[in-house]
Amino acid sequence: MTVSINLKRIVDDSYSIQIGPLPEINFEGKVAVLTNPKVAGLHLHTLLSRISAKEVYVITIPDGEHYKTLETIEFILDRMFDHRLNRKSLLVAFGGGVIGDMGGFSASLYNRGIDFIQIPTTLLSQVDASVGGKTGINNRYGKNLIGAFHQPRAVYIDPSFLKTLPSREFGAGVAEIVKMAVTFNAPFFEWLELHDLREGDNLLVAIKKAVETKAAVVEEDEKEQGLRAALNYGHTFGHVIENETKYETYLHGESVAIGMVMANELACECGLMERSEAERVKALLERYELPLSYPITDIEKFYQAFFLDKKSADSAITFILPRGIGGVEITDKIEADTVKKILTMFKGAGA
Ligand SMILES: NC(=O)c1ccc[n+]([C@@H]2O[C@H](COP(=O)([O-])OP(=O)(O)OC[C@H]3O[C@@H](n4cnc5c(N)ncnc54)[C@H](O)[C@@H]3O)[C@@H](O)[C@H]2O)c1
Ligand SMILES: O=C(O)C(=O)C[C@@H](O)[C@H](O)[C@H](O)COP(=O)(O)O
Ligand SMILES: [Zn+2]
Fold it and tell me: Could you tell me if 250 and 127 lie in one domain?
Protein backbone atom coordinates (compact mmCIF):
# COMPACT_ATOMS: atom_id res chain seq x y z
CA MET A 1 0.00 0.00 0.00
CA THR A 2 1.20 3.49 -0.75
CA VAL A 3 -0.02 6.55 1.07
CA SER A 4 0.90 9.78 -0.59
CA ILE A 5 0.93 13.21 0.90
CA ASN A 6 0.33 15.96 -1.59
CA LEU A 7 2.09 19.04 -0.27
CA LYS A 8 2.10 21.10 -3.44
CA ARG A 9 0.75 24.37 -2.22
CA ILE A 10 1.14 28.03 -2.79
CA VAL A 11 2.35 29.87 0.28
CA ASP A 12 2.07 33.62 0.08
CA ASP A 13 5.10 34.95 1.91
CA SER A 14 4.99 38.33 0.17
CA TYR A 15 5.94 41.40 2.18
CA SER A 16 6.81 44.98 1.65
CA ILE A 17 10.03 46.80 2.38
CA GLN A 18 9.41 50.38 3.41
CA ILE A 19 12.26 52.84 3.05
CA GLY A 20 11.71 56.06 5.01
CA PRO A 21 10.86 57.22 8.53
CA LEU A 22 10.00 54.37 10.90
CA PRO A 23 6.20 53.93 10.86
CA GLU A 24 3.92 53.24 13.84
CA ILE A 25 3.78 49.52 14.63
CA ASN A 26 0.37 48.53 15.98
CA PHE A 27 0.03 44.91 17.02
CA GLU A 28 -2.69 43.12 18.94
CA GLY A 29 -0.54 40.38 20.48
CA LYS A 30 2.72 40.31 22.41
CA VAL A 31 5.87 41.77 20.89
CA ALA A 32 9.47 40.89 21.71
CA VAL A 33 12.17 43.25 20.48
CA LEU A 34 15.57 41.61 19.95
CA THR A 35 18.50 43.99 20.14
CA ASN A 36 21.96 44.52 21.65
CA PRO A 37 23.22 47.05 24.25
CA LYS A 38 24.79 49.36 21.65
CA VAL A 39 21.70 49.69 19.45
CA ALA A 40 19.44 49.84 22.51
CA GLY A 41 21.49 52.68 23.99
CA LEU A 42 21.32 54.69 20.79
CA HIS A 43 17.88 54.00 19.33
CA LEU A 44 15.59 51.81 21.47
CA HIS A 45 13.65 54.82 22.79
CA THR A 46 12.76 55.74 19.19
CA LEU A 47 11.53 52.25 18.41
CA LEU A 48 9.56 51.83 21.64
CA SER A 49 7.83 55.17 21.06
CA ARG A 50 6.49 53.73 17.77
CA ILE A 51 5.20 50.38 19.08
CA SER A 52 1.76 49.85 20.49
CA ALA A 53 0.95 46.24 21.45
CA LYS A 54 -0.62 44.08 24.13
CA GLU A 55 2.75 43.67 25.86
CA VAL A 56 6.24 44.66 24.72
CA TYR A 57 9.38 42.88 25.94
CA VAL A 58 13.00 43.66 25.12
CA ILE A 59 15.48 40.81 24.74
CA THR A 60 19.08 42.02 24.78
CA ILE A 61 21.99 39.89 23.63
CA PRO A 62 25.71 40.77 23.58
CA ASP A 63 26.97 42.67 20.55
CA GLY A 64 29.03 41.03 17.84
CA GLU A 65 29.52 38.23 15.35
CA HIS A 66 31.14 36.15 18.14
CA TYR A 67 27.72 35.74 19.67
CA LYS A 68 26.02 34.58 16.46
CA THR A 69 25.85 31.07 17.88
CA LEU A 70 23.41 28.31 18.79
CA GLU A 71 24.05 29.16 22.45
CA THR A 72 22.69 32.67 21.92
CA ILE A 73 19.68 31.26 20.05
CA GLU A 74 18.91 29.12 23.08
CA PHE A 75 19.18 32.18 25.31
CA ILE A 76 16.77 34.11 23.04
CA LEU A 77 14.28 31.22 22.94
CA ASP A 78 14.42 30.92 26.74
CA ARG A 79 13.53 34.59 27.11
CA MET A 80 10.69 34.13 24.61
CA PHE A 81 9.36 31.29 26.78
CA ASP A 82 9.85 33.38 29.96
CA HIS A 83 7.63 36.03 28.39
CA ARG A 84 5.08 33.39 27.34
CA LEU A 85 5.18 34.36 23.70
CA ASN A 86 2.82 32.31 21.56
CA ARG A 87 2.10 31.66 17.92
CA LYS A 88 0.29 34.98 17.66
CA SER A 89 3.28 36.93 18.98
CA LEU A 90 5.70 38.99 16.93
CA LEU A 91 9.47 39.23 17.13
CA VAL A 92 11.09 42.50 16.05
CA ALA A 93 14.76 42.22 15.05
CA PHE A 94 16.25 45.66 15.80
CA GLY A 95 19.93 46.03 14.93
CA GLY A 96 22.48 45.04 12.31
CA GLY A 97 22.72 41.83 10.32
CA VAL A 98 23.77 39.76 13.33
CA ILE A 99 20.57 40.67 15.18
CA GLY A 100 18.52 40.20 11.99
CA ASP A 101 19.94 36.75 11.24
CA MET A 102 19.48 35.55 14.81
CA GLY A 103 16.09 37.18 15.29
CA GLY A 104 14.81 35.58 12.12
CA PHE A 105 16.23 32.18 13.08
CA SER A 106 14.71 32.35 16.58
CA ALA A 107 11.36 33.30 15.06
CA SER A 108 11.59 30.35 12.66
CA LEU A 109 12.15 27.96 15.59
CA TYR A 110 9.83 29.25 18.30
CA ASN A 111 6.67 27.11 18.42
CA ARG A 112 7.79 25.91 14.92
CA GLY A 113 7.67 29.42 13.56
CA ILE A 114 6.22 32.81 14.43
CA ASP A 115 6.11 36.11 12.58
CA PHE A 116 8.94 38.61 12.72
CA ILE A 117 9.82 41.96 11.25
CA GLN A 118 13.18 43.41 10.39
CA ILE A 119 14.18 46.91 11.46
CA PRO A 120 17.79 47.11 10.27
CA THR A 121 20.06 49.78 11.74
CA THR A 122 23.36 49.31 9.86
CA LEU A 123 23.94 50.14 6.22
CA LEU A 124 24.81 46.51 5.51
CA SER A 125 21.59 45.23 7.03
CA GLN A 126 19.52 47.93 5.32
CA VAL A 127 20.82 47.13 1.84
CA ASP A 128 21.16 43.37 2.17
CA ALA A 129 20.70 41.34 5.39
CA SER A 130 17.15 42.42 6.24
CA VAL A 131 15.84 41.40 2.82
CA GLY A 132 15.23 37.87 1.60
CA GLY A 133 14.68 35.69 4.64
CA LYS A 134 18.09 34.05 5.07
CA THR A 135 18.50 33.54 8.82
CA GLY A 136 21.04 31.57 10.83
CA ILE A 137 24.18 31.31 12.89
CA ASN A 138 27.85 30.33 12.65
CA ASN A 139 29.53 27.28 14.17
CA ARG A 140 33.10 26.02 14.40
CA TYR A 141 32.91 24.67 10.86
CA GLY A 142 32.07 27.98 9.31
CA LYS A 143 29.75 30.84 8.66
CA ASN A 144 25.94 30.63 8.51
CA LEU A 145 26.09 26.85 8.27
CA ILE A 146 22.98 26.38 10.42
CA GLY A 147 19.80 28.26 9.67
CA ALA A 148 16.50 28.50 7.90
CA PHE A 149 14.75 30.46 5.21
CA HIS A 150 12.14 32.42 7.14
CA GLN A 151 10.76 35.53 5.48
CA PRO A 152 9.94 38.57 7.60
CA ARG A 153 6.40 39.94 7.54
CA ALA A 154 7.77 43.42 6.83
CA VAL A 155 11.04 45.32 6.62
CA TYR A 156 11.27 48.94 7.82
CA ILE A 157 14.41 50.69 6.62
CA ASP A 158 14.86 54.06 8.27
CA PRO A 159 18.14 55.59 7.03
CA SER A 160 18.13 58.10 9.90
CA PHE A 161 19.40 55.30 12.18
CA LEU A 162 22.63 55.40 10.17
CA LYS A 163 23.60 58.82 11.58
CA THR A 164 25.30 57.06 14.51
CA LEU A 165 27.05 54.41 12.40
CA PRO A 166 30.89 54.39 12.55
CA SER A 167 32.60 54.92 9.18
CA ARG A 168 34.17 51.45 9.17
CA GLU A 169 30.67 49.91 9.43
CA PHE A 170 29.52 52.25 6.66
CA GLY A 171 32.29 50.93 4.38
CA ALA A 172 31.25 47.34 5.14
CA GLY A 173 27.75 48.16 3.93
CA VAL A 174 29.13 49.76 0.76
CA ALA A 175 30.87 46.46 -0.05
CA GLU A 176 27.48 44.69 -0.32
CA ILE A 177 26.12 47.57 -2.45
CA VAL A 178 29.09 47.17 -4.81
CA LYS A 179 28.37 43.41 -4.88
CA MET A 180 24.83 44.00 -6.18
CA ALA A 181 26.05 46.47 -8.81
CA VAL A 182 28.90 44.32 -10.15
CA THR A 183 26.73 41.22 -10.47
CA PHE A 184 23.44 42.68 -11.69
CA ASN A 185 23.56 46.30 -12.67
CA ALA A 186 26.29 47.96 -14.77
CA PRO A 187 24.56 51.39 -14.89
CA PHE A 188 24.33 51.32 -11.06
CA PHE A 189 28.06 50.52 -10.89
CA GLU A 190 28.81 53.47 -13.17
CA TRP A 191 26.58 55.66 -11.00
CA LEU A 192 28.51 54.52 -7.91
CA GLU A 193 31.77 55.47 -9.60
CA LEU A 194 30.43 58.99 -10.13
CA HIS A 195 28.69 59.58 -6.81
CA ASP A 196 30.07 59.67 -3.27
CA LEU A 197 27.65 57.87 -0.93
CA ARG A 198 28.70 60.14 1.93
CA GLU A 199 27.26 63.19 0.16
CA GLY A 200 23.72 64.55 -0.17
CA ASP A 201 20.94 62.14 -1.01
CA ASN A 202 23.23 59.66 -2.77
CA LEU A 203 23.01 57.11 0.03
CA LEU A 204 19.21 57.01 -0.11
CA VAL A 205 19.35 56.42 -3.87
CA ALA A 206 21.88 53.60 -3.39
CA ILE A 207 19.85 51.94 -0.60
CA LYS A 208 16.76 51.90 -2.84
CA LYS A 209 18.71 50.53 -5.81
CA ALA A 210 20.39 47.80 -3.76
CA VAL A 211 17.14 46.73 -2.10
CA GLU A 212 15.30 46.67 -5.46
CA THR A 213 18.09 44.57 -6.95
CA LYS A 214 18.09 42.07 -4.11
CA ALA A 215 14.28 41.89 -3.91
CA ALA A 216 14.08 41.03 -7.62
CA VAL A 217 16.61 38.21 -7.21
CA VAL A 218 14.83 36.79 -4.15
CA GLU A 219 11.49 36.94 -5.95
CA GLU A 220 12.99 34.89 -8.77
CA ASP A 221 14.75 32.33 -6.57
CA GLU A 222 13.79 32.49 -2.90
CA LYS A 223 15.59 29.36 -1.69
CA GLU A 224 18.81 29.68 -3.70
CA GLN A 225 18.21 26.95 -6.23
CA GLY A 226 20.01 28.96 -8.90
CA LEU A 227 20.19 32.72 -9.49
CA ARG A 228 20.23 33.75 -5.81
CA ALA A 229 23.66 32.17 -5.43
CA ALA A 230 24.95 35.21 -7.35
CA LEU A 231 24.35 37.27 -4.19
CA ASN A 232 27.17 35.19 -2.75
CA TYR A 233 29.73 36.92 -5.01
CA GLY A 234 32.77 37.56 -2.79
CA HIS A 235 31.38 35.33 -0.04
CA THR A 236 32.90 31.98 -1.04
CA PHE A 237 36.33 33.50 -0.28
CA GLY A 238 35.04 35.98 2.31
CA HIS A 239 33.46 33.38 4.59
CA VAL A 240 36.71 31.40 4.71
CA ILE A 241 38.59 34.58 5.66
CA GLU A 242 36.07 35.41 8.39
CA ASN A 243 36.23 31.92 9.87
CA GLU A 244 40.04 31.70 9.64
CA THR A 245 40.44 35.03 11.42
CA LYS A 246 37.80 34.06 14.03
CA TYR A 247 35.64 37.09 13.18
CA GLU A 248 38.25 39.30 14.88
CA THR A 249 40.10 40.99 12.05
CA TYR A 250 37.52 41.90 9.42
CA LEU A 251 33.88 42.92 9.42
CA HIS A 252 31.62 40.79 7.22
CA GLY A 253 31.50 43.48 4.51
CA GLU A 254 35.29 43.85 4.63
CA SER A 255 35.90 40.15 4.04
CA VAL A 256 33.34 40.28 1.22
CA ALA A 257 35.37 43.14 -0.31
CA ILE A 258 38.54 41.02 -0.20
CA GLY A 259 36.52 38.05 -1.49
CA MET A 260 35.31 40.09 -4.47
CA VAL A 261 38.90 41.05 -5.32
CA MET A 262 39.84 37.35 -5.19
CA ALA A 263 36.81 36.32 -7.27
CA ASN A 264 37.72 39.00 -9.81
CA GLU A 265 41.25 37.62 -10.10
CA LEU A 266 39.76 34.19 -10.77
CA ALA A 267 37.34 35.69 -13.29
CA CYS A 268 40.24 37.43 -15.08
CA GLU A 269 42.18 34.15 -15.14
CA CYS A 270 39.13 32.41 -16.67
CA GLY A 271 38.67 35.13 -19.30
CA LEU A 272 35.37 36.36 -17.84
CA MET A 273 36.57 39.79 -16.73
CA GLU A 274 38.99 42.34 -18.15
CA ARG A 275 41.86 43.45 -15.93
CA SER A 276 40.64 47.07 -16.33
CA GLU A 277 37.22 46.05 -14.93
CA ALA A 278 38.81 44.35 -11.92
CA GLU A 279 40.81 47.56 -11.33
CA ARG A 280 37.62 49.65 -11.41
CA VAL A 281 36.04 47.45 -8.75
CA LYS A 282 39.18 47.75 -6.62
CA ALA A 283 39.22 51.53 -7.00
CA LEU A 284 35.59 51.80 -5.88
CA LEU A 285 36.20 49.62 -2.81
CA GLU A 286 39.38 51.53 -1.98
CA ARG A 287 37.43 54.80 -1.93
CA TYR A 288 35.56 53.52 1.13
CA GLU A 289 38.78 52.29 2.75
CA LEU A 290 37.88 48.65 2.34
CA PRO A 291 40.66 46.04 2.54
CA LEU A 292 41.62 44.48 -0.79
CA SER A 293 43.93 41.70 0.25
CA TYR A 294 44.35 38.95 2.82
CA PRO A 295 47.60 37.13 3.57
CA ILE A 296 46.73 33.47 3.01
CA THR A 297 49.08 31.29 5.02
CA ASP A 298 48.05 27.78 4.02
CA ILE A 299 46.73 27.46 0.45
CA GLU A 300 45.53 23.85 0.83
CA LYS A 301 43.69 24.59 4.09
CA PHE A 302 42.03 27.64 2.53
CA TYR A 303 41.03 25.58 -0.53
CA GLN A 304 39.66 22.68 1.54
CA ALA A 305 37.44 25.09 3.49
CA PHE A 306 35.48 25.76 0.25
CA PHE A 307 34.02 22.25 0.51
CA LEU A 308 32.06 23.30 3.62
CA ASP A 309 30.45 26.18 1.71
CA LYS A 310 26.70 25.60 1.34
CA LYS A 311 26.99 26.03 -2.44
CA SER A 312 29.38 23.09 -2.67
CA ALA A 313 28.13 19.58 -3.34
CA ASP A 314 30.15 16.39 -3.05
CA SER A 315 33.41 17.13 -4.81
CA ALA A 316 32.36 20.30 -6.67
CA ILE A 317 32.91 23.83 -5.43
CA THR A 318 30.63 26.52 -6.80
CA PHE A 319 32.21 29.90 -7.55
CA ILE A 320 30.38 33.13 -8.30
CA LEU A 321 32.40 34.97 -10.90
CA PRO A 322 31.59 38.33 -12.43
CA ARG A 323 31.10 38.38 -16.19
CA GLY A 324 32.58 41.79 -16.75
CA ILE A 325 30.69 44.43 -14.78
CA GLY A 326 26.95 43.85 -14.56
CA GLY A 327 26.96 40.14 -15.29
CA VAL A 328 27.59 36.98 -13.35
CA GLU A 329 28.51 33.35 -13.86
CA ILE A 330 27.67 30.63 -11.34
CA THR A 331 30.04 27.76 -12.02
CA ASP A 332 31.28 24.52 -10.51
CA LYS A 333 33.66 23.88 -13.38
CA ILE A 334 36.80 25.69 -12.23
CA GLU A 335 39.85 23.43 -12.00
CA ALA A 336 41.47 23.12 -8.56
CA ASP A 337 44.85 24.19 -10.00
CA THR A 338 43.37 27.40 -11.37
CA VAL A 339 41.84 28.29 -8.01
CA LYS A 340 45.04 27.46 -6.17
CA LYS A 341 47.05 29.59 -8.61
CA ILE A 342 44.90 32.58 -7.66
CA LEU A 343 45.10 31.80 -3.94
CA THR A 344 48.90 31.69 -4.28
CA MET A 345 48.85 35.29 -5.53
CA PHE A 346 47.54 36.22 -2.07
CA LYS A 347 50.00 34.09 -0.12
CA GLY A 348 51.94 35.92 2.56
CA ALA A 349 51.86 39.65 2.00
CA GLY A 350 48.98 39.37 -0.48
CA ALA A 351 48.41 40.69 -3.98
N1 LIG B 1 20.65 37.26 5.91
C2 LIG B 1 21.29 37.86 4.93
O3 LIG B 1 20.84 37.91 3.78
C4 LIG B 1 22.58 38.56 5.23
C5 LIG B 1 23.13 39.43 4.28
C6 LIG B 1 24.32 40.07 4.59
C7 LIG B 1 24.93 39.88 5.81
N8 LIG B 1 24.36 39.03 6.71
C9 LIG B 1 24.96 38.85 8.04
O10 LIG B 1 24.92 40.11 8.69
C11 LIG B 1 26.00 40.20 9.61
C12 LIG B 1 26.72 41.52 9.41
O13 LIG B 1 25.80 42.56 9.65
P14 LIG B 1 26.30 44.00 10.10
O15 LIG B 1 27.39 44.43 9.22
O16 LIG B 1 25.11 44.83 10.24
O17 LIG B 1 27.00 43.70 11.50
P18 LIG B 1 26.47 43.80 13.00
O19 LIG B 1 25.09 43.34 13.13
O20 LIG B 1 27.50 43.14 13.84
O21 LIG B 1 26.50 45.37 13.27
C22 LIG B 1 27.73 46.03 13.19
C23 LIG B 1 27.99 46.92 14.44
O24 LIG B 1 27.20 48.11 14.32
C25 LIG B 1 26.47 48.31 15.54
N26 LIG B 1 25.30 49.09 15.18
C27 LIG B 1 24.13 48.65 14.67
N28 LIG B 1 23.36 49.70 14.33
C29 LIG B 1 24.04 50.81 14.67
C30 LIG B 1 23.76 52.18 14.57
N31 LIG B 1 22.65 52.64 14.00
N32 LIG B 1 24.69 53.07 15.03
C33 LIG B 1 25.86 52.62 15.56
N34 LIG B 1 26.18 51.32 15.66
C35 LIG B 1 25.28 50.44 15.22
C36 LIG B 1 26.23 46.91 16.04
O37 LIG B 1 25.90 46.91 17.40
C38 LIG B 1 27.60 46.26 15.73
O39 LIG B 1 28.52 46.62 16.73
C40 LIG B 1 26.88 39.00 9.36
O41 LIG B 1 26.65 38.03 10.36
C42 LIG B 1 26.41 38.49 8.02
O43 LIG B 1 26.61 37.11 7.89
C44 LIG B 1 23.21 38.38 6.44
O1 LIG C 1 20.79 36.89 0.53
C2 LIG C 1 21.65 36.18 0.00
O3 LIG C 1 21.34 35.23 -0.71
C4 LIG C 1 23.09 36.45 0.22
O5 LIG C 1 23.93 35.67 -0.19
C6 LIG C 1 23.45 37.71 0.94
C7 LIG C 1 24.82 37.70 1.56
O8 LIG C 1 25.28 39.04 1.57
C9 LIG C 1 24.81 37.26 3.03
O10 LIG C 1 26.07 37.46 3.60
C11 LIG C 1 24.32 35.86 3.26
O12 LIG C 1 24.14 35.61 4.64
C13 LIG C 1 25.27 34.83 2.77
O14 LIG C 1 24.52 33.70 2.56
P15 LIG C 1 25.06 32.26 2.84
O16 LIG C 1 23.96 31.39 2.37
O17 LIG C 1 26.32 32.10 2.09
O18 LIG C 1 25.29 32.15 4.28
ZN1 LIG D 1 27.00 39.23 2.83
Answer: no
Q: Could you tell me which residues are beta bridge partners of residue 135?
A: 148
Select from 293, 216, 283, 284 the least CA-distant residue to 250: 293
Ligand 1 pocket check: which of 66, 101, 160 to mutate, most ligand atoms within 8 Å of Cβ?
101
For ligand 2, atom 4: residue with the closest CA? 231
* Active-site residue (options: 209, 228, 282, 310): 228
**Quick check: 43 pLDDT over 80?**
yes
The count of structural domains within the chain is 2
Q: Is the pLDDT of residue 351 over 90?
A: no
Is 97's C-beta closer than 6 angstroms to any atom of ligand 1?
A: yes
Same domain, yes or no: 289 and 307: yes
Domain, as residue range, for 34 = 16-163
**Separation of 134 CA from ligand 2 center, angstroms?**
7
Range list of β-strands (E), 103-165: 115-120, 134-139, 142-149, 154-157
Indicate the average pLDDT of the chain.
97
What is the complex's ipTM, to 2 decimals? 0.99
Q: What is the pLDDT of residues 129-147, one digit of tens each?
A: 999 999 999 999 999 999 9
Is 340 labeled as ligand-binding?
Answer: no
pLDDT surpasses 50 at 208: yes
Q: Which segments of 94-234 does DSSP mark as H helices, in order?
A: 97-109, 123-124, 167-184, 186-194, 202-220
Choosing from 8, 9, 112, 140, the catalytic residue is 112
Instruction: State which ligand 1 atom lies nearest to the alpha carbon of 172.
Output: 15
Residue 321 falls inside a structural domain: yes
Assign residue 99 the CATH number of its domain.
Answer: 3.40.50.1970
- Alpha-carbon distance 280 to 276, whole Å? 6
Asked if residue 10 belongs to a domain, the reply is: no
Tell me the average pLDDT across 54-67.
Answer: 98
